Amino acid sequence: MSPDPQLERLFSQLAQVELPAADKWIRPPVSKRRWQPDWSIALAVLAGLLILVVVMGTQQELRQRAAAPSPSSGTQRQILLYPSGPGENDAWLTMLVPDGWSVSSGPEPVSGRGGGTRAVQISNRPVDSFSTGGAFPQQLDWARLPLDTVVVEVRDICGGLMCMGPAGESAFPLRWADAAPLSVGSPAPAGFEARTLAFRFFLENHVVVAYVGRDASASDFAQVDRVVAGLAPLNLPATGLLHGKWLGVGPFSALPVDEPVFGNLPSPPTTGTGYYVIRHGSGTVAHPMTYQTALGVFCNLAWDSAAATLSCPGRPERWDRFGRGVEGTTRDLDQFTTLTKNGDVYVNFRTVNGGKVELPGP
Amino acid sequence: VGISPERWEALYRQAFPAVYRAVLAVTLDRDIALDALQDAFVEGLRRPPAVDRNLVGWLYRVAVRKARRSQGRAGSVRLRAIPAEDGRLGAALDALEVGRLLDLLTERQRVVIVAHYFLGLTQHEIAEQLGIKRGTVGATITQSLSRMRREAGNVS
Asked: pLDDT band at B83, cuts 50/70/90?
């Protein structure tokens, strides 16, 4: 849309500016806070203490994991990666770090050179000793790094506008041979070769970025292939909450064909308290169980197996099994995003898509 | 007939990342951008938009208006000097260069350029949200681009 590449590049970088934590996106109304000041203060203090304990525990655990070699991994140790999104406390990927290499884990915003949020940074030199820009501590001062340095980072790519990445879920192990020269944002630092490899996991795009100094040893250079090949998803639970927004609903093969399966959401999100998912051909469709009428009233959908329609008690609207309006309404039901991964079905109940129902292909 | 609170919150959360960054580009102040969007959310709860069409434009307009009010009596959103203590944000926006380019523009030009090229709103939508004529939007974009291109050579 922008008329010249410079403007497009500038706004593309703006699209990667760090967001506030999701729990700060909405501020409780002042009137509500004044109703119960004692409870609010007490809850805030308790929540603060809880967060402090969790953060300290997590940091300690990460430090221990980073410091302790895995007994079964021989010359490599295993670390866990955590997604950077708010409310997501589950580790989602594991990574092997060569012996003698250092690790800086935990989400950190990065600026320039593609931007994004960095989940981990590992290097053949001590990461903590790296010189960083004074104004932006997360950004390495490449000019002061020895040219035998190798740095590998895993980052999230922007989650909104102008994001690019693989079209489908990536297969693991990743192949570093598929990496491309770094071209987003700015060229590689002087004296370094920078390459990137994008991958897609649970419909979100991530990227591995490796910087290899021109004096790096052949063995350190070769470690990059091993590090990337060692990047792998953790075992995913087939059911239950995952990453704060996905709900595992079990094996695809266990879902009845063309028959809605209802379930409760783990914590009432903004879209009601329940969902239903229906298997269709080789895909699935999921909808909130709650429907909002034209008058703004909410009702819970029920399945009429005889008529093979969904409806609210006492309401004239009817939808077919896939949420398409068939009687009394021209509106289709809102949709949740679904994903079938390793044979299990997951529903993203944090994102609601309006408009026409889209059925998966055969 | 408006949007239910639950629906409104869901739509707000969807639009937040893009609109927050847009308001940040206009104000260059994280606190003001966040406060303005929080206020816009509350206003949406009290007086929900009649339809959920172009909610990004609605949120952007209301948040910019809130930011303008919170930024002083002058009645216009002024690009603030980046606080020295917020070095990370300063360096980030400095690296983006967008701050320096937008600094060349008037308030209205900034608001329109960000709405059009970052949020992807059409000229018609911008005119509708800002209460100005579509021709004015087009002319504002043309003038802004011309000015930015003239000065772009001075921005590394």
From this structure: very low
- Which residues are within 8 A (CB) of B17 and not within 5 positions of it... i.e. 6 or more apart? A19, A159, A160
Count of Cβ atoms closer than 10 Å to residue A260 Cβ: 24
Instruction: Report whether A287 contacts A334 (CB < 8 A).
Output: yes
User: Which residue reads 């091993």 in tokens?
Assistant: A226
Q: Could you read off the pLDDT of B35-79 as tens digits, one per residue?
A: 899 988 888 888 877 666 778 888 999 998 888 887 653 333 343
Tell me, what's the pLDDT at A314?
85
Contacts of A272 in chain B (CB under 8 A): 6
With an 8 Å Cβ cutoff, is A39 touching chain B?
no
In angstroms, the separation between the Cα of residue B13 and the nearest Cα of chain A is 8
DSSP A135-188: S-TTSB-GGGS-TT-EEEEEEEPPSSTT----SSPPPSS--GGG-EE--SSS-P
The proportion of chain B whose per-residue pLDDT surpasses 70, expressed as a percent, equals: 73
Name B25's Cβ contacts closer than 8 Å, sequence gap at least 6.
A14, B98, B99, B102, B110, B114, B118
Evaluated on CA atoms A257, A262, A266, A272, the torsion sign reads positive
Cβ atoms of B23 and B38 within 8 Å: the answer is: no
- With contacts defined as CB-CB under 8 Å, which chain A residues touch B95? 13, 111-112, 136
Please choose, from the candidates A341, A343, A302, A336, the residue with its C-alpha nearest in 3D space to the C-alpha of residue A319: A302
* Chains A & B: contacts with CB separation below 8 Å: 118
> What count of other Cβ atoms lies within 10 Å of the Cβ of residue A150?
22
pLDDT in tens, A199-253: 888 887 778 888 899 888 888 888 999 899 999 888 778 888 777 778 899 999 8
- The answer to whether B13 contacts A27, with C-beta atoms less than 8 Å apart, is no
**Residue A186 φ then ψ, to 5°:** -160, 160
Q: For residue range A265-290, list pLDDT tens digits in order.
A: 776 555 567 888 999 877 898 888 88
How crowded is the C-beta side of B9, counted as CA atoms within 13 Å? 15
Proportion of chain A above pLDDT 70, given as a percent: 72
Q: Is A319 exposed, middle or buried (0-12, 13-18, 19+ CB in 10 A)?
A: buried
Residue with token string 């910019």: B64
CA-to-CA dists, residue A66 to A11, A81, A117, A119, angstroms: 36, 11, 20, 14
Hey, which residues does A311 pair with through a beta bridge?
A302
For testing the chain A interface, which of B96, B141, B144, B151 should be mutated: the one with the most A CBs within 10 Å? B96
Cα dihedral B98, B104, B108, B113 sign: negative
Cα separations (Å) of A153 from A99, A102, A127? 17, 12, 11
Task: Map residue A361 onto helix, strand or coil.
Answer: coil
